[in-house]
Amino acid sequence: MIVLIKRPTPSRFWAYTTPLLAVLATMIAGGLLFAALGKNPVEAIKVIFWDPLFGANAAYFRSQLLVKAAPLILIAAGLAVGFRAGIWNIGAEGQYIIGALCGASVALAAYPAESAWLFPAMVVAGLLGGFLWGMIPAALRVVFGTSEILVSLMLVYVAQNLLAYAAFGPLKNPQGYGFPGSRNLQQYPSAHNPELIAGTGAHWGVVAALIAVIGAYVLMHRHIAGFRIRVAGEAPRAARFAGVVPARLVVTCLGLSGALAGLAGLFEVSGPNGQITDSFNAGYGFTAIIVAFLGRLHPLGILLAGLLMALTYIGGDMAQLMLGLPAAAIQVFQGMLLFFLLGFDLLTNYRIRMTGAHA
Amino acid sequence: MILGGIDIIVLSATLMAASTPVLLAATGELIAEKAGVLNLGVEGMMIMGAVGGFAAATVTGSPVLGFVGGALAGAVLAMVFAVLTQVFLSNQTATGLALTLFGLGLSALIGKGYEGVRPPPTPKLDLGPLADIPVLGPVLFSHDWVVYASLALVAGTWVFLRRSRAGLILRAVGESHDAAHALGYRVIAVRIAALAFGGAMAGFGGAYLSLVRVPQWTEGMTAGAGWIALAIVVFASWRPERVLIGAYLFGGISALQLQLQAAGYAIPVHLLSMAPYVLTIVVLVLLSALHRHGAQAAPADLGRSFHAAR
For the segment A167-217, what is each residue's pLDDT rounded down to a tens digit? Predict the structure, then answer.
């Protein structure tokens, strides 16, 4: 009989190994899925994971890697801090939208004035927008004890409707021949978030993501505040005795993750995307949840996980083009990855023992 | 009866049908949560039910088989959750989120071939003279069988939880899994069964969306209904009769919102579409404000993994 014995402390070895195992298992299960869809599994896996990095035209795809990874890492770095503390902000998608809306509104209000101060002002607006949108579930949780999970998620749908309203209404391009969608910020020099080094795809969002990773590392692993956050998540009672104020923790975690998600939205709308449209959001806020877990809620892990997840996006697009693989297949692939990861985590927290029949 | 451009009778009549998907999903989730499992994957199970039910109905040509297929699809996805959380002892919040993300992806993949197809119609039940009663007839007695089945399921859930021995065991497992285990009840088995029921109900509700409410398949068509079902369970303080009130309140708002759009009010469509979500938040807040010091309504072991020490 198989018996599980809880480890006194999570195994370090398995904590590092399970993400790799999960990726491997997902590749196998994904291969089976692709085979079921009538595609050659080996070729599909190669197109998704190998070709964007080392195949023909790899130079272009490698620059896309940073473009796609930056918002994921930026959002996940914030989410992970909250998840550590047991505070579940699953509405990052909404905070991302609101950040983009606020930043773009500042730019569109100033149009066509050129000023070196415009872009910094947009950054502040995006950050504040995401922060305030994150403050709604935080305030409701602190004041009334309402579940932050449900409120933050509901606010995604509210934000999505606000986005559509803005794209069809107040932010619509007056010279857009009646089409919905705002002016393209890429054609507005002061508001544009350009590629900083040609050919790398690195824009200000990539810089911000790197700063966020370093900041999160310092906060969580080199600062007393991070220690308190981790204790609060692992032993809430002990944390309270140690003087951790739960309300302050909720506000910090939701505020931080909201602000970072808002920033990600602002960098996306002013850079790679360029425009407020009703389909502007691409689900980064939800994929970032997978990134946070795949990265073991550790900033450096998130950096790697974000790059891997960005690779599946790019490879998925490629597989769609070259093999006719449906776009949704990649979504299934990402979901499976999270399943395997959560399942394999058993090895981190439990020891598996085979015992005799007399168990 | 017309009030401000809105026909009250038509509104009340659509209310029951509009509420049915969330009512079914919320009733299923109620049972799972009463057994102590928090499954945040309702949205994923619902959309799998929507696509599974749609596929089964169009392939077989039978809407009834469609609903069976929808319930099965939801239950199968719930089993993935059950294996991960009950056998592999994974974190329930994270696994539930994964279930939703996975379900949304898989349903889009399966549904590709069904876009733009019309499902076989589900006829309204012929209740004879009852349907001819003024006001009450169109409001209460002119629906399809699923609407009445959902009401029967709520009543059945109430009886099961309050009046049956099995219901008592289920509640014991949710309140204290250690005590239930010590008494010799099989905690994991009870929880897996509760999850399967929850998944089947969510799938059933999802199938009602794609087969009757809309009726067609579009990607992401549940649009948060699964999350609203989760909110309704909290709103209902884990009581079946209050789930009914919560679901009808929500259904009323979404029906009203659609009627306001149709009546041509000068409110932008997108702002009206927000109403159900904003209302859900408002209701959750009101409820938690009222129960500020009485969170005992939730099953005591909700969301905690069970691992028998011996």
Answer: 888 888 888 787 788 888 888 888 888 888 877 778 888 899 999 999 999
CA distance A233 to chain B (A): 13
Instruction: Identify the structural domains of chain A with CATH numbers, from first to last.
Output: 58-325 (1.10.3470)
How close does chain B come to A196, measured CA to CA in Å?
34
pTM, 2 dp: 0.89
Is A293 close to B94, i.e. CB distance below 8 A?
A: yes
Q: Do A147 and B268 touch (CB under 8 A)?
A: no
Q: How many domains does chain B have?
A: 1
Task: Measure Cα distances from A262 to A93, A98, A106, A193, A284 in Å.
Answer: 9, 6, 14, 15, 12
| B303 found inside a domain | no
Interface of A with B in 322-341 (CB under 8 A): 326-336, 338-339
Closest by Cβ to A338, choosing from B101, B104, B281: B101
> In the Cβ-directed half-sphere of A81, how many Cα atoms lie within 13 Å?
33
Taking the CA of residue B277 and the nearest CA in chain A, the distance in Å comes to 6
Partner residue opposite A158 with nearest CB, options B103, B274, B292: B274
Whether residue B308 is contained in a domain is answered as: no
Q: Are A145 and B292 in contact (CB under 8 A)?
A: yes
- Domain that residue B47 falls in: 2-297
CA of A290 vs chain B CAs: smallest distance (Å):
8
Comparing CB atoms, the residue among A156, A332, A343 nearest residue B105 is A332
Q: Answer yes or no: is B71 within a domain.
A: yes
Q: Which residues of B touch A326 (CB under 8 A)?
A: 108-109, 112
Q: What is the CATH number of the domain that holds B6?
A: 1.10.3470
pLDDT tens profile B52-101: 999 999 999 888 999 999 999 999 999 999 999 998 888 888 899 889 98
Is residue B143 included in any domain, yes or no? yes
- DSSP calls for chain B: -EETTEEHHHHHHHHHHHHHHHHHHHHHHHHHHHTT---TTHHHHHHHHHHHHHHHHHHHS-HHHHHHHHHHHHHHHHHHHHIIIIIS---HHHHHHHHHHHHHHHHHHHHGGGBTPPPPP-PBP--GGGGGSTTHHHHHSS-BHHHHHHHHHHHHHHHHHHH-HHHHHHHHHHH-HHHHHHTT--HHHHHHHHHHHHHHHHHHHHHHIIIIIS-SB-TTTTTTHHHHHHHHHHHTTT-HHHHHHHHHHHHHHHHHHHHHHHTT-SS-HHHHHTHHHHHHHHHHHHHHHHTTT-GGGS-TTTT-------
Q: Chain A contact for B302, CB < 8 A?
A: no
